[in-house]
């Protein structure tokens, strides 16, 4: 079912991409209705899942279903053994969707017979896929309605904070940059950046291996790297950060996440130069709180010879890095939707070969992105060490004067200001306060607290034309 | 012999008499300046600490405000004093929560704590070793260089509005002195500067000097150590006795300036400057005479507005026909410095100095004192200086 849904999504996204090149907007809604017709037999519970995919909104405005027939035929062939057509969806479900986004521009229903789709595990997998999809297509709000085995559920995948990024070839992406990490207790209300700030990395041309060319993949293939580091600590320049996890997500040219484990990325840590990065090691791990599916997750361990005593007293915020690999392909001889879909499937099928064929360049690209990320981390650490060393001198000197003063008014004033009873408590209280004010110094940044565009979805007027 | 000596010094004596008249006008005012007592200094330091504690009690980052000692905008000129810091001056903020300034914040606090202890015990740290050096070597990682300690002591002196000497911190002296002068250091050591072959280091504790005895007719400030040594070698102080020669070895340190000021305050004799005929030498002479921007907050104790320019004058180069190969073309930097000097407020009251500097601008050449050896090896001590002093060749 997931593969089938991916195929349908691919068709819609490829259509949208073509329209994007015309400068049209990319926001809107996507409805996924899944419901079961369960047949009960004496031996086995057979599960037939009906699926309806519907799209509305500016991102698919102007699409004519009749014009899509050749592509739909090809789609149906690639989605065998789906059953076409299937039961029609509940009109009320569709009307609720059209009320939000306007008339439907795309509607396709199919049926799959498979017991696996009736399990909660599969549903979780589907939701993870949709979250990963939304991550790089934050302009599209997804409504997932499930009615499996009499149990109904509704999930909406919408984004709180999004950011438009422009890649090469004027390709625009809307990324979900929402950061859900809770602020540390030292942070005042309203002073925590809830968004990440994507950084556009290098664009790397990829050479197509000969065996893949023999299968029919030609043209120019490249990968654009985008990084997203969260949570954002830009307003807190004195806090040390520690990169603990890296997740790699690969998206095919239609911006659909590539699912399935990648041998290439799983072996990547072994070839990274950890010493150059100042890291103890990077290794592939199964991050239990994995929100996004299809990616490869690494755990990062830093140098073990850092002073553990100093480290425990220095405030450090752990960060995670998302590495997006956006595959891009262009071939002047491929412009029909059907050809584009076939090309994408080829890319996905031979992705491991392609990645291995460009191993050196890809490893260098990852090394560069990590180096850039860790440069900031290392700088923060040095700054914090400087503050820490100076703080000890400031406290020592101040306490030396207070302790040796014979001016009772002065001593009492110092004790009463800090609400303590003796110089011993004063020293501890001053230390704690100095450390707090210097470490958590807040410098508001416009890009962290701006209320422009990134927060609100595109304000597009739906059209009234019917399919 | 006596009449010859008397004739030789006649112009100097006339100048001396003239200076004494002016001194009577300013002395009472200068003496009116009170010394700040130890308790007041402790109170001022305590108020800084209390401000820091108060900031932390409000969860605010502590901040120190240092008067800006490098800006001409904070300077005013008084012909009787020289360059002094304005009462309303701009400040530089040193924050404890900013990595770029936190080290300086810590350095200031460290030295404040040292000064506090010294003032409390009302002692000077050592008799023979400079405390600046002590502070530096006890905390090399914190300060990085002795120069950093020197600068921060000046900042603290300016911030607390307390003379450096009252902080009980002694700076290194690099200057040398020789001639008709005896005095006693604070620790009772007797200093005799009469030796013709070796000079005495300028004291680190000028304010502690007592019992100054001298019959010198004048004091000569010499820009460079090389020239100073030359005069020593040529037994200048014996031949043109009685006099005192002093050098700060280039840009003078505070102790050298304090010494010149002290000699003026005690002896009220003419003070001449012998500097290279170049913008750098003129600027050094102006530091002795009018003070510097960096130390303007303590101008009263450092400046000697009565300093006269004895040589080497740009007009001397033409008059004496110094060989051209001994002259050096002005660089772009020299020309820029010369323009800057001409715009300084203190030169508006020195038309003769302005004339000499404009002559240098027009001729586009400069010369070191050593250029006089191109005329004759001992021209400086045998001809040039004696004639200058005999015939009043100063401006």
Automatic annotation (TrEMBL), chain A:
InterPro entries: TopoVIB-like
GO biological process: meiotic DNA double-strand break formation
Protein name: Type 2 DNA topoisomerase 6 subunit B-like isoform X2
Organism: Pundamilia nyererei
UniProtKB/TrEMBL annotation, chain B:
UniProt key word Magnesium: yes
Enzyme Commission no: 5.6.2.2
Coiled-coil regions, chain positions: none
GO molecular function: ATP binding; DNA binding; DNA topoisomerase type II (double strand cut, ATP-hydrolyzing) activity; metal ion binding
Co-factor requirement: Mg(2+)
Record domain Spo11/DNA topoisomerase VI subunit A N-terminal: where: 104-169
The protein's name: DNA topoisomerase (ATP-hydrolyzing)
Species assigned in the record: Pundamilia nyererei
């Amino acid at each position: 079912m997931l593969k089938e849904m991916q195929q349908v999504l691919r068709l819609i996204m490829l259509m949208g991409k073509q329209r994007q090149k015309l400068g049209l907007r990319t926001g809107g809604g996507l409805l996924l209705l899944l419901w079961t017709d369960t047949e009960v037999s004496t031996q086995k519970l057979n599960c037939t899942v009906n699926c309806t995919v519907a799209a509305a909104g500016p991102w698919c405005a102007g699409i004519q279903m009749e014009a899509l027939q050749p592509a739909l035929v090809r789609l149906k062939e690639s989605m065998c053994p789906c059953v076409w057509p299937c039961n029609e969806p509940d009109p009320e479900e569709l009307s609720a969707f059209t009320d939000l986004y306007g008339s439907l521009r795309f509607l396709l229903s199919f049926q799959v017979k498979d017991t696996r789709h009736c399990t909660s595990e599969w549903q979780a997998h589907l939701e993870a896929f949709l979250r990963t999809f939304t991550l790089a297509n934050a302009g599209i709000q997804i409504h997932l309605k499930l009615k499996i085995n009499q149990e109904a559920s509704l999930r909406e995948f919408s984004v709180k904070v999004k950011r438009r990024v422009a890649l090469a070839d004027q390709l625009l992406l809307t990324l979900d940059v929402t950061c859900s990490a809770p602020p540390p207790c030292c942070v005042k209300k309203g002073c925590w950046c809830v968004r990440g700030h994507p950084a556009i990395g290098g664009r790397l041309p990829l050479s197509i291996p000969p065996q893949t060319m023999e299968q029919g993949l030609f043209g120019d293939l490249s990968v654009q790297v985008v990084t997203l580091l969260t949570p954002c600590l830009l307003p807190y320049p004195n806090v040390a950060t520690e990169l603990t996890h890296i997740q790699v997500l690969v998206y095919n040219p239609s911006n659909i996440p590539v699912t399935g484990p990648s041998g290439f990325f799983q072996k990547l840590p072994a070839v990274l130069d950890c010493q150059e990065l100042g890291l103890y090691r990077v290794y592939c791990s199964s991050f239990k709180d994995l929100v996004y599916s299809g990616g490869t997750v690494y755990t990062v361990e830093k140098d073990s010879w850092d002073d553990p005593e100093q480290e425990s007293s220095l405030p450090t915020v752990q960060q995670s890095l998302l590495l997006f690999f956006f595959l891009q392909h262009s071939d002047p001889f491929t412009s029909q939707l059907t050809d584009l879909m076939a090309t994408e499937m080829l890319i996905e099928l031979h992705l491991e070969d392609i990645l291995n064929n460009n191993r050196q360049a890809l490893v260098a690209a990852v090394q560069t992105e990590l180096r850039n990320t860790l440069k900031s981390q290392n700088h923060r650490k040095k700054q914090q060490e400087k503050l820490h060393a100076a703080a000890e001198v400031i406290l020592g000197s101040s306490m030396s004067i207070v302790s040796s003063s014979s001016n009772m008014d002065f001593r009492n004033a110092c004790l009463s200001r800090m609400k303590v009873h003796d110089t011993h408590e004063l020293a501890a209280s001053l230390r704690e306060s100095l450390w707090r004010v210097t470490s958590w110094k807040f410098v508001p940044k416009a890009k962290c607290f701006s209320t422009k565009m990134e927060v609100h979805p595109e304000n597009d007027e739906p059209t009234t034309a019917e399919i | 012999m006596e009449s010859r000596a008397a004739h030789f010094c006649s112009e100097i004596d006339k100048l001396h008499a003239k200076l004494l008249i002016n001194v009577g006008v300013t002395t009472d005012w200068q003496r009116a300046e009170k010394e700040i007592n130890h308790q007041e200094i402790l109170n001022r330091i305590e108020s800084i600490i209390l401000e820091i504690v108060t900031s932390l009690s409000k969860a605010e980052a502590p901040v120190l405000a240092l008067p800006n000692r490098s800006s001409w905008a904070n300077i005013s000129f008084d012909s009787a004093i020289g360059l002094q810091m304005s009462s309303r001056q701009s400040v530089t903020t040193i924050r404890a929560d900013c990595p770029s300034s936190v080290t300086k914040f810590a350095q200031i606090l460290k030295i404040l704590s040292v000064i506090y202890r010294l003032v409390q015990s009302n002692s000077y740290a050592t008799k023979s070793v400079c405390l600046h050096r002590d502070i530096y070597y006890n905390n090399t990682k914190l300060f990085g260089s002795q120069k950093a300690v020197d600068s921060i002591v000046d900042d603290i002196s300016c911030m607390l509005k307390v003379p450096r000497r009252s902080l009980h911190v002694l700076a290194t002296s690099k200057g040398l002195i020789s001639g008709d002068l005896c005095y006693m250091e604070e620790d009772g050591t007797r200093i005799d500067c009469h030796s013709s072959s070796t000079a005495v280091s300028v004291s680190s504790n000028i304010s502690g000097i007592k019992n100054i005895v001298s019959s010198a007719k004048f004091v000569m400030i010499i820009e460079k150590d090389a020239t100073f040594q030359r005069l020593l070698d040529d037994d200048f102080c014996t031949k043109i006795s009685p006099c005192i020669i002093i050098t700060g070895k280039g840009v003078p340190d505070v102790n050298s300036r304090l010494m010149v000021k002290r000699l003026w305050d005690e002896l009220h004799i003419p003070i001449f400057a012998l500097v290279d005929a170049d913008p750098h030498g003129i600027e050094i002479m102006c530091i002795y005479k009018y003070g510097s921007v960096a130390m303007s907050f303590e101008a009263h104790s450092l400046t000697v507005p009565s300093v006269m320019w004895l040589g080497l004058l740009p007009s001397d180069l033409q008059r004496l026909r110094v060989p051209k190969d001994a002259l050096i073309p002005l660089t772009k930097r020299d020309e820029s410095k010369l323009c800057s000097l001409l715009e300084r407020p203190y030169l508006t009251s020195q038309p003769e100095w302005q004339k000499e500097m404009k002559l240098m601008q027009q001729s586009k050449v400069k010369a070191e004192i050593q250029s006089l050896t191109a005329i004759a090896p001992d021209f400086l001590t045998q001809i040039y200086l004696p004639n200058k002093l005999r015939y009043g060749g100063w401006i």
